[in-house]
Design goal:
With 684 residues, this protein is of the alpha/beta class. Among the domains are: 99 residues, Nucleic acid-binding proteins (OB fold (Dihydrolipoamide Acetyltransferase, E2P), Beta Barrel); 155 residues, P-loop containing nucleotide triphosphate hydrolases (Rossmann fold, 3-Layer(aba) Sandwich); 158 residues, P-loop containing nucleotide triphosphate hydrolases (Rossmann fold). It contains 21 helices and 21 strands. The strands form four sheets. The protein has a seven-stranded parallel β-sheet, sandwiched between helices. A six-stranded parallel β-sheet has the order 16-21-20-17-19-18, sandwiched between helices. A five-stranded mixed β-barrel has the order 2-3-4-6-5. Helix 17 links the parallel strand 20 and strand 21. It starts with 9 loop residues before the first helix and ends in a 10-residue tail after the last helix.
């Protein structure tokens, strides 16, 4: 029903309510309070303490009006009970003078303050009348709603009460009875009544859980159906592989695969052998060896007569992958090619032709792989590295370069379990835990400006040992004298004043691909002692000889970002150190510094970062699939989400197309919520 037809609304107020996205009575029922105030406990005036929020039942002793020293109109009430007197005041609300009369019984709620006497400014009030029904504003657990201009709490409570009284019985319960019984959930009518006007905190908690569970249940049912549709709606490529291929691959490696790497390889092998396209996420900490696992997946595809590709977000990372894969797979006769925008026109055309005819067996590239003129002869495997740096459409475009190729997406930012069950809930997930054997731990120090000379001394000591150093800045150029230091300004100062006898290099995101490549080759070739950089080195840099990183103004970086940067060192056979320079001034910044100094575990760091920043900021942008939740919070309500996921996946497994009569309401809910949104689910 249109909200304007609800008692007390009408066309004008309906227009105002639209600002709150309240267009129907259904919207009003699901316009939930943001918090509650317990006004159910009355106290005596003698027990009022300054600074406390109190609910008082008293009698009006006198009413007066006047002006303050600043010429503001003020209405004052003296109210009393058998234990004392307290004053109430309202400013610039003269119409209230007509409401209050001596000897009225009144209930007030507000914060008591001590001036020359106890007083409550702008309290909520209720004049007690014998014939009046129970109050919505006093003497109970009271809902507090999000507001907009020209809408008051009292008015929204009134509308919620009217909507509950006239419409709640029309709500249809989406959740199956067996699910409600298993999880001891209330029916939806009880939940809506008690989310607005709870008789007790116990009822409020039961109502909250019921509404949040339903939201998670619909989301997880959508993810379950998406996973089903991906596997069933397309016929993929059956890749065969045997132990001989795996053993031959292992022999090429200068190290042994960890147990986590072997497990990931087995999972990928199994997926690729299936007739359905692989849709798997490979996650692991910085330096855990994901590229080697991906290399084996690429090799399987090539040995089955198909081409394979790996797409990276930056040229630096793409070139790093190209070098690694060439060294690893060319001894097996595999032709690995690199396609990035920094190549010359003739070279690009040469590689384009090789891709088209199938001569290029593995193609490593950036967004260049998505160019309209790039066509594969037979793409069987698509790997997307640092997948969170690509949008949904870009990932889809790469897969469309082949006919339902297997797809492996990788991330060097470990995914907290909460997000693994939501944003990545439609993917199979392989996790590489731990680091390859022989890696030495990195010692992390937190230092302030007064230790700078000691830091510069430490840098010299590392270089005298034959090592190399990164110094990272948050900005390319200085914006103000008081702001964070910049890479360009400090590069000049460090070269001229601090380390004039050493060779320094500068790299940042505004440089051309050719310039960045030239600098990195010099650094890897040990022709540069100190590389001054921005976060452009966050991923894709592998220089085993670098043993020290100094991160300037480290309070300006996020926790996962700091961890990614630190992952550029500690790749050699000698101890490494990371120094966080800065003065954290907020609790969140102090927590980041503490966590970095306490642990190198990327999974723990990811969980901490998610807690500090929240899911939206952690993921970066909405395009990466963060579901819009109205009621639930994936951090606070994780336990409820796990229960809902289990029940939803069981339901879709039992009734994949939701054809059973009892499940048709769920199907309708999925259509209503997800039609045309993020292509999350496809129900017909």
């Amino acid at each position: 029903m249109d909200i304007r037809y609800l008692k007390g609304v009408g066309p004008k107020r309906a227009d105002i309510l639209r600002r709150l996205e309240i267009r129907t009575t259904y919207d009003m029922l699901y316009y939930l309070p943001r918090r509650y105030e317990d006004r159910s406990r009355f106290i005596l005036i003698k027990d009022v303490k300054p600074g406390a929020y109190v609910t008082l039942r008293a009698r009006v002793l006198f009413v007066s009006s006047g002006f303050t020293r600043r010429n503001m109109r003020v209405l004052r009430l003296a109210i009393g009970d058998k234990t004392g007197v307290i004053y109430c005041a309202w400013f610039n609300q003269p119409f209230l003078g007509k409401l209050f009369k001596k000897d009225q019984d009144i209930v007030v709620y507000g914060k008591a303050e001590r001036y020359d006497r106890l007083q409550i400014n702008h309290p909520e009030y209720e004049i007690i009348q014998e014939e009046k029904k129970d109050s919505l504003n006093i003497g109970r657990i009271v809902p507090i709603y999000p507001l907009t201009q020209d809408v008051t709490q009292k008015y929204l409570r009134y509308l919620a009460c009217e909507a509950v009284a006239t419409c709640v019985h029309t709500l249809v319960d989406i959740l199956p009875i067996n699910v409600r019984a298993r999880r001891a959930l209330t029916d939806i009518c009880f939940a809506i009544r008690n989310i607005h006007f709870p008789a007790s905190y116990e009822n409020l908690e039961r109502a909250r859980k019921r509404i949040i569970f339903e939201e998670f249940f619909i989301l997880q049912a959508a993810l379950a159906m998406k996973r089903k549709n991906i596997k069933e709606d397309s016929s993929g490529i059956t890749h065969s592989s045997d132990e001989k291929l795996l053993e031959g691959f292992k022999e090429l490696l200068p190290f042994e695969l960890t147990s986590s790497q072997v497990q990931a390889v087995r999972e990928i092998q199994s997926d690729m052998a299936d007739t359905k396209p692989m849709n798997r996420l490979l996650e692991g900490d910085v330096g855990s060896g994901k590229t080697v696992v991906a290399a084996y997946a690429l090799l399987i595809s090539v040995k089955n007569g198909y081409q394979a590709s790996i797409m990276a977000p930056t040229e630096i990372l793409a070139r790093q992958h190209y070098i690694t894969l060439s060294e690893l797979l060319m001894p097996l006769g595999v032709n690995v090619r690199l396609l990035v925008s920094g190549l010359g026109p003739d070279k690009k055309e040469e590689i384009r032709k090789e891709i088209l005819c199938g001569e290029a067996e593995i193609v490593v590239g950036t967004h260049a792989l998505l160019w309209e003129g790039i066509e594969f002869k037979s793409l069987g495997m698509a790997v997307i590295d640092e997948q969170h740096k690509f949008g949904v459409a870009q990932r889809r475009l790469l897969k469309q370069k082949g006919k339902n190729p297997d797809c492996l997406v990788m991330t060097a930012t470990p995914i907290p379990r909460t997000l693994a069950l939501t944003v990545y809930g439609d993917l199979d997930i392989s996790v590489i835990r731990g680091l390859p054997g022989g890696r030495l731990p990195i010692t992390t120090y937190c230092m302030e400006e007064d230790k700078r000379e000691s830091v510069y001394k430490f840098i010299r000591e590392e270089i005298e040992k034959g090592r190399q150093v990164y110094i990272v800045y948050p900005r390319i150029r200085q914006k103000s004298e008081a702001g964070p230091k910049s890479a360009t300004a400090m590069y000049n100062r460090l070269q001229e004043e601090v380390f004039p006898d050493l060779k320094l290099g500068l790299i940042h995101g505004k440089m051309s691909s050719g310039e960045k490549d030239k600098i990195m080759k010099k650094f890897k070739g040990k022709k540069i002692h100190i590389l001054v950089s921005t976060i452009v080195i966050e991923v894709g840099i592998d220089v085993p000889n670098a043993s020290l990183m100094v991160i300037e103004n480290a309070e300006n970086f996020g926790l996962s970002q700091l961890h990614q940067l630190r992952g550029r060192i500690g790749r050699g056979d000698y101890p490494s150190s990371c120094i966080l320079m800065g003065r954290p001034r907020t609790d969140a910044a102090r927590k980041r510094f503490f966590t970095m100094s306490e642990t190198q575990d990327g999974f723990r760091i990811a969980e901490e970062d998610l807690e500090l920043r929240g899911p939206g900021e952690f993921l970066g942008t909405r395009q990466h699939g963060l579901p819009e939740l109205r009621f639930g919070n994936i951090l606070r309500d994780f336990d409820i989400m796990e229960e809902a996921r289990k029940d939803a996946f069981e339901l879709i497994k039992r009734d994949p197309d939701l054809k059973e009569e009892r499940n048709k309401r769920i199907k309708e809910a999925l259509k209503t919520r997800f039609k045309g949104k993020l292509e999350l689910v496809n129900v017909g």
